Amino acid sequence: MDNIEQFLQNFPNLTHLEIKDEYELSDRNIIDGYRWQRIVQSLISFHFLFYVNDVLTEQSLDSFRTSFWIEEKRWFIAFYDKCLFTISISDHGLSHMKLFSGKPLYSTLPNNTILYRPKYSMFGRRICLENTFRFTSIKNLYLDWNDSFKILSSIIDLKQIEMLKLSWRYYYLLKDIQYHMPNLRILKFQDVIHSIKFLEKEHIESAELKQIRTLKFETYLFWNESIDYIDKLSHSFPLIEHLSTWPIRSRSDIIYCIDKFPRLTSVSFHIHDSMNNASRCSEFVSDLILNDIKQFFHCSATCYIDCWGEATTVPEHIHIWLGKRKFSTYQRPRFEHLWYKIKNTFQLSNKPRNMSAFVTMIANTHVRPVLNKLPYL
Q1: Rounded to an integer, what distance in angstroms lies between the CA atom of residue 224 and that of residue 272?
Q2: Which of 260, 239, 236 is nearest to 248 (CA)?
Q3: Cis omega (within 30 of 0) for bond into 66
Q4: What values do phi and psi take at 302, rounded to 5?
């Protein structure tokens, strides 16, 4: 606080000020509204955002509730999860927010001193909040939310959200998100490694988020059956253009994944940890991948392979950028891919003891579902 005050003395004619410090924790002096009043009283506009290394309560904002802040300047302050920031009735300047349902949200707004109180909190029974204020400029939202969607809508104008990071615990919100976030374009799933079964739940099977263009999985996935969930994923997110980061075991997995998302223009894969170094180096070669894509999709592509380190050539990640597919000639890729997948599975397998059972498993898993869909001749 001393450094800020000393610095601003060099600008006596300053009329507009915005300070954001998102990387360091400020001391408690930053919460002194009386001191701020002396510093910024000549300003026309003033916005700040600080992270405070302290536990605050509703009363901690009392120094910002004077007539100077509330009536003269109409600058209002909010505190949430160690973040102290200015807000205005028109809510300018706050473009992103992390929202946890377990933390209260305080403000100096008249009649809105508590914008949100958790369902289960140390304050006892939650009061009914009838907010007249909502955050209307939030574009990026990190959501860790187990409260009602109705209350969430009362805090934030969800129609403005363009990027959402969702904790794996609350994927059930997808059924509401598909209707209440029409401008959502980027969806990030966090810590999916803990809950692959979320793709089997009703909330993901019934959801169809056609507004999503970019889908990101922030934690590398290690599921043995991960490629089999692509079908469900493509149903819930049919218009995906960018996908990152999905686990694969073979080049046929790459083809299968690209085939499921017709609008895909870029995709990143993580090679499954179960694959040994020799298999990685022989299977995932740039030229081979590009040849497969050209064969099945009749389009150009660019491929870049990340290795484990500078001193090794063992592939770890694969990044692919796709050209426009020629759908007029795109008639048989699923049948071609079917044979490719069967052949590739035999090549990568370790010759199971019961080969008959293995062939039956392949036929039931991959061949029969396709044949059942064919019309009678």
Answers
A1: 8
A2: 260
A3: no
A4: -125, 135
Helices assigned H by DSSP within 10-116 = 33-40, 67
The Cα–Cα gap between 53 and 104 comes to: 17
pTM greater than 0.70: no
Q: Are 261 and 232 in contact (CB under 8 A)?
A: no
d(CA 233, CA 215): 10
The predicted-structure confidence for 262-305, as pLDDT tens digits, reads as follows 999 999 999 888 888 898 999 999 999 999 999 999 999 999 99
Strand spans (E) along 158-300 = 163-167, 186-190, 214-217, 242-248, 266-271
Return the structure tokens found at 9.
């003395």
Q: How far apart are the C-alpha atoms of 44 and 312, rounded to whole Å?
A: 58
- Conformational region of residue 111, where left means phi above 0, alpha means psi within -120 to 50, and beta covers everything else: left
Q: If DSSP codes are grouped into helix, strand and coil, which group holds residue 205?
A: helix
Question: Rounded to an integer, what distance in angstroms lies between the CA atom of residue 165 and that of residue 144?
Answer: 9
Q: Is 49 exposed, middle or buried (0-12, 13-18, 19+ CB in 10 A)?
A: middle
Question: How does strand 315-322 pair with strand 301-307?
Answer: antiparallel
**What stretch of H or E contains 23?**
strand 16-26
